[in-house]
Amino acid sequence: MPLLSCKNVSLAYDGATVATDITFDVHGGDYLCILGRNGSGKSTLIKAIAGLIKPADGEITFGDGLTSRQIGYLPQATVVQKNFPASVWEVVMSGTRSLFYSKQDKQKATDVLEMLGLSDIAKHSCAELSGGQLQRVLLARALCASAKLLLLDEPAAGLDKLVTEELYALVNKLNREQGLTVIIISHDIDTSLTDATHILHMDHKPLFFGTSEDYIKNGHAKRFWGVGE
Description:
Elements (H helix, E strand, L loop, with lengths): L3 E10 L2 E11 L4 E5 L6 H8 L7 E6 L8 E4 L4 H4 L5 H7 L8 H13 L15 H15 L3 E5 L7 H18 L2 E5 L3 H7 L2 E5 L3 E6 H6 L2 H6 L4
Parallel strand pairs: 3-7, 3-8, 5-6, 6-7
Antiparallel strand pairs: 1-2, 1-4, 8-9
Helix pairs in contact: 3-5, 4-5
């Protein structure tokens, strides 16, 4: 049974239709990369999966006991995030979405901080962090919310090449070693084709959905991005 199913989904933003005819399934352990030019409906689709907006038509359903409260979501970076005055620990703990933090919540946050190499700066203010550190903190927050599915909307936007490589390697490790299902929007085509198990190419509707291998083999990567075979 799919972890996530989109069936004949249409999406609208501020009253304007931005994407139609979206149908695909994501299974547990998949790494789906959503590709496409700016304005093609990618971020709107991610927001719909996260439950932040409702589809204008069609349906998005979850399987394997997954609920919207168990989905980790890392949106695009904003100026507000970069100047957020809370501590690293406070931001990460907020990902548990609990009014009163349990022992289990605190342990999960501790484990995630350690896994992402953030334990030493847990008491630091987020306003003091570099862009790469802050993005790791926000990823940690998303992981505290995530039980099975992690949504990432251009997580490396604005980061330098080295930090970007480290971030994508971490996401790939979470998928391959811990079995976390990942749906990511990325403009890093080479990394996407290497790391992702599946590709969804959007241009206001799906132009391709299938395995990364087929995306390359059938010439789509070459035609759209000039890479691959």
